Amino acid sequence: MDKFKQILKQYWGYNDFRPLQGDIIQSIASGNDTLGLMPTGGGKSLTFQVPGMVLDGICIVITPLIALMKDQVANLSRRGIKALAIHSGMQSKEVSIAFDNALFGGYKFLYISPERAASPFFRERVTQLNISILAIDEAHCISQWGYDFRPSYLKLAELREIIPHVPVLALTATATPQVVDDIQDKLRFSRKNLFQKSFERSNVIYVVRHSEKKEEQLLNMLNAIPGSAIVYARNRKQTKEIAQMLLQQGISADYFHAGLDHDLRDERQKRWTLNQTRVMVATNAFGMGIDKPDVRLVVHMQAPDSLEAYFQEAGRAGRDSLKAYAVLLWSPNDKTNLNRQVSTAFPELDTVRRVYEALGNFFQIAVGSGSGTIHDFNMAAFCHNYHLSISNTLSSLRILERAGYLEFTEDINLPSRIIFLLQRDELYKFQVANADLDAFIKLLLRSYTGLFTEYAAIDENLMAQRTASSFDTIYQYLKRLNQARVIHYIPRRKGPQITYSQPREDLRHLTFSKAIYADRLNIYRQQVDSVILYATTTHTCRSRLLLHYFVEKNTTDCGRCDVCIDKKKTGLPDSQFKSIQQSIRQLLTQTPLTYPDLVHALNIPSPDVEKVIRWLEDVDLIITNANNQLEWLE
């Protein structure tokens, strides 16, 4: 392990690995297919980045998150490590040049989206690479039992036929045992090989607060718990409203969602990371890839639709191992909203077909054509033109994506890029012949590096500032050079995109298998029910309930969640309380008893029994029936 620790110290500044990191690295470096199950904040990326630096060749990293992909490439580059990315939104020429650089440029990491990895172009050229590791992040996406199943992941197993001797490292933060087995089966592991860290976060205190006045509860918590915080809200409008309310109360806050300009999101995230902003109010678009260890409080104003998602988002609290809180605010309306969300997430198939048909007309794609085409997607205009709701359209797109008809990228934000098409001697001749463009070409060469070998991201506004000109002036210069084939200029693209995975189908041939619709609907229903159970249970320790969901056995009460604190209010030691509760349960599940008969049967001092019974009645585990007998309900 010495060589791995040396790389860890040299590039990341750490003296040793966290628990499980070293074991996973040793396994994958030995050529073994490996599944690493590590909670959010456990340091998953280092398990492929460190061995990727030591082993000969290039590590291919598959991830569905473009923003995370770009962040990791940027972070590696800042450490002096050569990395590049290929993802949806890139043009074919960009992809080809990026692949050439991966082949000949001495790069150690190639990040690629699952859709690109499944493309014929990638499969044709991947055999030319000397690959050290095939790392698959968010590996739960390959399992139909997972909470974020993506059909593009299923095609990754076919890469094993093309590069059979490359070991696979699959990584995920949350997975039930069924998903764990499914991942290894779908990825064709030569043998089962799981490294799993307990999901237990002993420093995180889980709390559910039942309240109709959620904003009042939020203020109380922020005033009681100092330090950095994340507040998750249902939608974009609510993030802004809550942030403004906090500011009016003198609490430093800002809001974040996918609809904001990319630069603005970066600026807000940076200010929060540096503790210049205390509270970030956000949709679930916030948090992926953020490494901020000192978050003391994560509050959910509404419950997510799965415990996997909740556990991952709540897990952003207390990554420094110090005490932190994860609080879910719950009201009776939340149960209604979650149940309604099931029908929203799975609209009738007639609605899905209608959306598919409208898409083809919207993009003017003929039946039998369009395969591989990429389209910028104005959802507001689409829904207005075809009288569709945004929620039904969004859900229909997800179903069509799972069925393999198209790919939907909700938040694409790619900066403008250029590459010089002329070599230096040819460029010099062009500058001499076109004196009016000479100064601008020199500005490009001074401002950006590597322009002759790879596409470079450029900022037209920044160049306009440097030249005391306008964005339009810079744009016109770039457009002229592009038309003269001196450069290839790709203007900035932002907003949703839709890619047709196959030719447009005649509506009569549009099919949705049981696994795509009915089975997924059933899984989603179970996930929502699990969230409702977590929020409404008043007699099981929150931490134990979460751990049981991930089928961790032999757990103990945390002693610090709201349920455990309520138990402590009886004044009885925890072990004594549990013993009395268990004895009462054993007796009352056999037959209802009057209070005197129960006390007599238990042979325990009646004041202690009364305290436990009162608590059991409060949490609706026992009732007094019409015969004045105590009856166990569960």
TrEMBL record:
Its EC number is 5.6.2.4. Keywords: ATP-binding, DNA-binding, Helicase, Hydrolase, Isomerase, Metal-binding, Nucleotide-binding. One of its GO terms (molecular function) is four-way junction helicase activity. The keyword Isomerase applies. One of its GO terms (cellular component) is cytoplasm. GO terms for biological process: DNA recombination; DNA repair. It is an enzyme of class 5 (isomerase). It catalyses: Couples ATP hydrolysis with the unwinding of duplex DNA by translocating in the 3'-5' direction. Belongs to the helicase family. RecQ subfamily. This is ATP-dependent DNA helicase RecQ. It comes from Breznakibacter xylanolyticus.
